[in-house]
Specification:
By secondary structure, the protein is an alpha+beta fold. It is built from two helices and six strands; from the N terminus they run βαββββαβ. The protein has one domain: 2-Layer Sandwich (Alpha-Beta Plaits). The strands form two sheets. Strands 5-1-6 form a three-stranded antiparallel β-sheet, covered by helices on one side. It has a three-stranded antiparallel β-sheet with strand order 2-3-4. The longest helix has 10 residues. The protein binds iron/sulfur cluster.
């Protein structure tokens, strides 16, 4: 069963580094958006802001992002609807 809600519309991906084990499985599943920092933790690459742990998922990558979040063994990838108040967390 999918862990992520089947929401429509733009989504934001947030990485919870406190839950992450830093092994980088998600960076292999979603290399279009995620890379690893020097310590192995995933970092999102947003052309608008550079490195971040909270970014809007481009529509063509929504399925890949859902798969990465569903397969994260530590439940450290969160997908949420993109709305002005949701993306405010740093
Ligand atoms: S798959 Fe999950 S636990 Fe593994 S590196 Fe990515 S966010 Fe961290």
């Amino acid at each position: 069963m999918a862990r992520t809600a089947q929401q429509t519309g733009p989504l934001r991906l947030w990485i919870d580094w406190t839950a992450c084990d830093g092994r980088g499985w998600c960076t292999e599943l979603l290399p279009e958006l995620l890379d690893r920092d020097p310590d192995g933790y995933p970092i999102a690459l947003d052309p608008a802001v550079g490195q971040t742990r909270d970014l809007t998922v481009p529509a063509p990558l929504t399925g890949h992002a859902r798969r990465a979040a569903d397969l994260c063994p530590r439940l450290a990838l969160h997908l949420r609807p993109a709305s002005p108040d949701v993306g405010a967390r740093a």
